[in-house]
Every structure is written in C-alpha cells, then in structure tokens.
Amino acid sequence: MVRIDAKELSKVPYLRAHAAGDRSLRLAPFWDGAAWHLWIAVPDGTLFPMKPQGFSEGSYVATEPAVADDIYFPFMEFVWKRASWPEVDRRQDAIVEDVHQLAASIAKIDFFWRMREHVPGGGLAVGRYVRSELEFLLTTYRTSCGQSGPVSACSTKNSNVAKVS
C-alpha cells in the first residue's frame, strides 16, 4: 500500500481525507455524470489522474448511475464512508464480489426462463439449470452473510470515527 499525502488526496472529489482517521481510503473509478475519472497511486506518493473511456464491470463512485441498470448497494456505501478499516477491507471485497455473483445468477435465471422454448426438453430441462442456480444463490448468500457479520461488528466497535460525507 502506498501512503499518499492528504493534500494530494484532496484532488479526488469523492474523498474527505481529513476525516478518514485510521481508515483505509480506496481509489475507485468516478463517474461525474458525463465522464469517467480515475486516480492511480504512484510510488512517490502522488496521484496520477486518468480519463478512462469507459467502465465495463466493478464498483465505482457516482452521484447517479452511469448506466440505468447498475446496482446501488447502500451497505457498501456505508462501509466505504464509515467503516473502511484495514480489518474490514478483505471482507468488503468478498461481499462486493458476492453481490456481483448473485446479480449474474439472477440474470441467468431470467435468461433461462426467456429461452425455455428454445432448449431441447423445454421447461423441464431449464428447471435443472434453474435449480443449480438457486443452489448457487443460497450458498453464496449464506457465505456473504458470514462475511458481513464481522463487518458489522467492526463498524460498531469503531463507531467514534469521524464521518466522511
């Protein structure tokens, strides 16, 4: 991890470095409503600004979705703004990955339903696909709930940290 001076971090519009305390600050793609922005930490402790031409998948910061069907996940906003301590970071990554996996699985179930007439065996064959997706959904959900418990405990334990807004 590269240490970045608070003055340098002030270049990133969504960060309030002065209020971070002992929390980790993440650099993520930023959608300003018209264009993408990204800052990369370099070894000398400065930030290198970039202007990506698009963003295909992952988490980003914005005041509004870049694409209408992007998922807003309030729990992760809370973690980013109020509970981003080093011991939470790994769990945060795992939870975000689980949410992406759950969304993809739900989309697959919808796809299977729409394509059932084109699959040999029709609805009966598609039922097998759907059952395996449901099993994956439930397993992933249980795993994700196991990850969020420690995050909640960390956020309660450190509730005196200044708010980042």
Would you give an account of this structure?
By secondary structure, this protein is α+β, with helices and mostly antiparallel strands. It folds into 2 domains: about 1-70, no CATH class; about 70-165. The protein has helices spanning about 5-10, 75-80, 85-115, 120-155, and strands at about 30, 35-40, 45-50, 60. α3 runs antiparallel to α4. The longest helix is centred in the C-terminal third of the chain and has 36 residues, at about 120-155. Residues about 150-165 have low confidence and may be disordered.
Describe the secondary-structure layout:
Elements: H1 6-9, E1 30-31, E2 36-41, E3 47-50, E4 61-62, H2 74-82, H3 86-115, H4 122-157
Helix pairs in contact: 3-4
Please sum up the structure shown:
This protein has 165 residues and is α+β, with helices and mostly antiparallel strands.
Name the overall outline. Answer: elongated
Number of strands: 4
Strand content: 5-15%
Subunit organisation of the chains = single chain
**Which strands sit side by side, in order, in the main sheet?**
3-2-1-4
Helix tally equals 4
Main beta-sheet strand count, sense and barrel state: 4 strands, mixed
Radius of gyration: 20 Å
Q: What is the structural class? A: alpha+beta
